[in-house]
Each structure stands twice: as C-alpha cells, then as structure tokens.
Design brief:
Layout: H1 6-12, E1 15-16, H2 21-27, H3 40-43, H4 45-58, E2 62-64, H5 72-77, H6 84-102, E3 105-111, H7 121-141, E4 145-151, H8 154-166, E5 171-175, H9 189-198, E6 203-207, H10 212-225, E7 229-233, E8 250-251, E9 255-256, H11 269-282, E10 286-287, H12 295-304, H13 333-340
Parallel strand pairs: 1-10, 2-3, 3-4, 4-5, 5-6, 6-7, 7-10
Antiparallel strand pairs: 8-9
Helix pairs in contact: 4-6, 4-12, 6-7, 7-8, 9-10, 10-11, 11-12
Bound molecules: zinc ion.
Zinc ion (ZN) binds next to loops.
Length: 343
C-alpha cells in the first residue's frame, strides 16, 4: 500500500498519531524505567513490531520510529554507545515494515537531549551533532518526515528543525509544556510555536506532559497564532488546573506518581475520544496521544473522528454482554440489581 504524503493528509483531513512507545514497552517489561532507553529495538524487536502493529490496527496514520532517547548521550549513560547506529537504523526498519502493512507514514524521531544549555554556546554544536547522526541514519533507511518532540527549549527545537530541513524532510516540531506558560529558555509556548512556524516547520504544537484537559486551552491559543498545521498529543492522564502535567500529579499519601504510579489517573477511551473530537473541532490537524497510550485509546479516538479501522472489527458490542446487554438472553435482573447496589 502506498502512503499518502503528510502534506496531502493534513490538507484533506485529520492525521491520527500514536506515541508513548517507551512508556508502554516499559509496562510490558522491555524497557527499563529511569533511563527509558528503547533497548527493545535491538533486544526484542518483535515486541516493538507488535506495538507498532497494534497502533496501526487502531488507526494510527504514522509509525514513529522508536528512536526516542536513542541518542548518544542516553546510550552512553546505559553503556551502549556502540549500539547507537544499529539501534537507530533498526528502529526505522521496524517502523517501515509495519507501516507498509497499512499505508502508514514513517516518521523519524528525535527528542530533547538533556545536553542543551542556552547559556553555553558549545552545547548547541553537541546537540546538532547528535541530531545529525540520528537523522542521517534515519533518512538513509527511509522516512517520510521527522517528529522532533518533547522540546523543553525553543533553542534546542530550532536546532532539530534546521537539521531536518538540511535533510530536505518535512518537520513536525512539538514542545513539552511542563511549565505554566514558557519554555525553559523563556519563550511563551504560543510565541515559541509561532517562531518554529516562521522557520518553516510543517507542523508545530505540543506533546506529552499535559493531559487533554490542560492541553486543549493552550493548543487553542497556538491554533489561533499560527497558519501552519498544529499537532496535539497529550498524555492520557487526568491533569487539572492544580496539577497541569503528569509530573505534577500527586496521590493522597503517596506523593508524586510520575512516572510509575500514574495508573489511577488514567483517562478512559471515552475521554480520549472526546479529546480527539474537541481537538479536531479546534482546528488541530494532527491529533494523537503520548505516554500512557494504549491501542484502545487510539481506536476510540479514530472512531470518534469517523474512521473505521482494522481493530474496529473487535470494537465493543455491549448489547452482546450477558448482563448489560438489553437483548441478552441470559440477562438476569437480580444480578443487575446487585451490581447497582452500593456496598
Ligand atoms: Zn510522552
């Protein structure tokens, strides 16, 4: 199946994204929390392929190569610097393999490096070299565009954008919005997106950190401020005004829940479906999901946007439920009554 180009998809409808690979593979036992390096790309490629395929079947239009945190700085920290090239190349191959099964696009992926310091000009060169090697390998393997994401600094995001443009590829550049209003180098998030758009990014926006409730108001302001396509990929967690990011969520008696005890704050598939519709109605062009995502979220989002996807074959038919289904032959009033009683 031939993939329709990103620009054509953005021009004619909503593009559905699905990310959070590192989080999900950690839950499945293939990535170590803390470092969060996607070692599974080399160690358990079948696990990566399976997750790609689940997101594809759920309606994702883009297979994102799992090179998040597969940069030199991170691999050095886990003693696998010699695997850097192999890991980056293999990640693209795995994404390509699955994308071809469903006509999806393949995105290369870079993220914040933790090596950038706006007060130290030399770090810009270090970051540039890290992006150039990762994306050089990705472009060599064959990608349709690049997602540069979870950018804390506008300065670092602009370096990624330049490297992507030098490779002649479309760029989607999204910011981490961990702070109330500004990037770590002091730019209002809206202004930072306007600057990225001005420098030629195809898509700008936000990903990760905020849940749907706290991402939507900010993305609405970004949508109003730029002419290019806008992306919104929140985490499926119930953030609110008091705790606008998943990092700031606190459980009573347990303190910080990020990143290992977020489960009680999970959004349901219905909440993510509502988010997808709300984002689309705001004019968001690339509607997705980040850390915490499961294929059930993605399918519900795709269906809410009017799609029937491969996994729709197994979408819920609650009318068939033995107790909850109104036409169920075995429906038992006594059981239903018991379910309705509060203890
Ligand atoms: Zn994320």
């Amino acid at each position: 199946m031939t993939a329709v180009a990103l620009a054509d998809r953005l021009a004619t409808g909503t593009v559905i994204g699905a990310e959070g690979y590192v989080f999900e593979l950690e839950r499945r036992g293939y990535v170590k929390a803390g470092a969060f390096v996607p070692e599974a790309v080399l160690d358990f490629p079948d696990a990566v392929i399976e997750l790609h395929r689940e997101f594809l079947r759920a309606g994702a239009d883009v297979m994102v190569a799992l090179t998040y945190y597969a940069h030199r700085e991170k691999l050095r920290q886990v003693g696998r610097e010699s695997d850097l090239e192999a890991m980056n190349r293999q990640a693209v191959r795995l994404a390509r393999k699955v994308a071809a099964e469903g006509g999806a696009l393949v995105a290369g992926n870079v993220c914040n490096t933790w090596a950038y310091d706006p007060r130290d000009a030399a770090t810009a060169g270090v970051v540039r070299a890290m992006y150039a090697e990762q994306l050089g390998w990705a472009a060599d393997e064959g990608i349709d565009f690049v997602i540069a994401e979870t950018n804390d600094y506008l300065g670092e995001a602009l370096i990624a954008l330049e490297v992507i443009q030098e490779l002649g590829l479309p760029a989607m550049v999204t910011l981490a919005s961990t702070r109330p209003a500004r990037t770590w180098d002091g730019y209002d998030y809206v202004e930072a997106c306007r600057i990225l758009a001005g420098h030629g990014a195809t898509v700008v926006g936000l990903n990760c950190d905020r849940g749907p409730v706290t991402m939507l108001p900010l993305i609405a302001r970004i949508r109003d401020a730029v002419d290019c396509a806008v992306a919104a990929q929140p985490v499926p967690y119930r953030t609110d005004e008091t705790s606008p990011t998943m990092e700031s969520l606190r459980a009573e008696g347990a303190g910080r829940v990020f990143p290992l005890a977020l489960d009680p704050f999970s959004c349901t598939r219905f909440e993510m479906a509502d988010f997808a519709v709300a984002a689309r109605d705001l004019g968001v062009n690339y509607v997705g999901i980040c850390c915490g995502a499961g294929p059930h979220h993605v399918r519900a989002m795709a269906e809410a946007l009017g799609r029937t996807v491969p996994a729709s074959k197994y979408s819920p038919s609650m009318d068939l439920h033995p107790i909850l289904g109104t036409a169920a032959p075995s429906q038992d009033r006594d059981v239903l009554d018991a379910w309705n009683v509060s203890p």
